[in-house]
Specification:
With 274 residues, this protein is mainly beta. It has four helices and 15 strands. β3 and β4 form a beta hairpin. The N terminus is likely disordered.
């Protein structure tokens, strides 16, 4: 992640390159360099339809010409869960719409306007980010099926899957139209930097060489197979799991969605009558 202070500084080519070098899930650093955004590196085209997959465009506050993208997960017919830094007014401004349930980045699925944004009260920028979760209320419910929140993440070693829109080539910053997926696993806390993973943050390790979620994939889902083989949501892309020169050189760090399940349910319940 880049820091709030660095985003607020005057954007220069040197600052952009340095920010990208240390970011895993920064919202806009790829766009600051090339005019496109990046998500899963060395993933593959989605093999099935994920009705809960959502995404929304964002604009950098420091430089309105910089356009980015964030992922999200439909957890209720009228609510999506994303990363708090994806809606941080000091970093970015969501462009006002969310696309749900499409395998295509710019077409298909259902598009809804953003009705309300609720950020976790404990959210703070850092390395790692703290309480990096937020909810977006759509202006109207959608017909797509929400994803179930897992009761708990699987143990270290449990197979998981990451979803997002973005480049398949780190060097070219290609931003494909088709949704990408990547096979991963729950990592042990010790596989991330000391103190970075724990009850609220999941260390995540790619099962594919030189591959990981990256810039523009912030807020997107990490899922695991639950009872009956259905997908369950365990994580939301937050940032790097350790200092590394690029996205594919280290583990990823995901906010543990089960750890925030009570806050998610309370927030949805308290706002749905308004």
């Amino acid at each position: 992640m880049f820091s709030l202070n660095s985003v607020r500084r005057r954007v220069t080519a040197r600052t952009r390159a340095r920010a990208c070098a240390v970011a895993l899930a920064a919202v806009v650093c790829a766009t600051a360099t090339t005019g496109t955004a990046q998500a899963i590196v060395n993933g593959k085209d989605s093999t099935e339809r994920y009705s809960f997959m959502a995404s929304f465009p964002v604009t950098a506050v420091a430089d309105p010409s910089v356009k980015g993208l964030c992922g999200a997960s439909l957890v209720h017919p009228q609510w999506v869960l994303t990363a708090a830094h994806c809606v941080d007014p000091g970093l970015v401004e969501p462009d006002g719409t969310v696309r749900i349930g499409s395998e295509q980045r710019t077409s298909g699925g259902t598009v809804r306007a953003v009705g309300r944004i609720v950020t976790h009260p404990g959210y703070a920028q850092g390395r790692p980010n703290r309480d990096d979760v937020a909810l977006i209320r759509l202006d109207r419910p959608v017909a797509e099926k929400p994803v179930r929140i897992a009761e708990r993440p699987g143990r270290p070693g449990t197979p998981t899957r990451l979803l997002g829109f973005g480049t398949v080539d780190l060097t070219r910053w290609v931003f494909p139209e088709r949704l990408q997926q990547l096979e991963a696993r729950r990592g042990a806390d010790s596989e991330c930097a000391p103190g970075w993973a724990g009850r609220t943050r999941l260390c995540t390790v790619s099962r594919v060489p030189d591959a990981m979620a990256c810039n523009g994939d912030s807020g997107g889902p990490q899922i695991q197979r639950g009872k009956g083989g259905r997908w369950e949501l365990i994580g939301t892309t937050s940032g790097p799991g350790a200092p590394s020169p690029d996205c594919v050189s280290g583990p990823g760090l995901y906010s543990s969605v089960p750890a925030y399940a009570d806050w998610i349910h309370r927030t949805i319940t308290s706002h749905d009558d308004r």
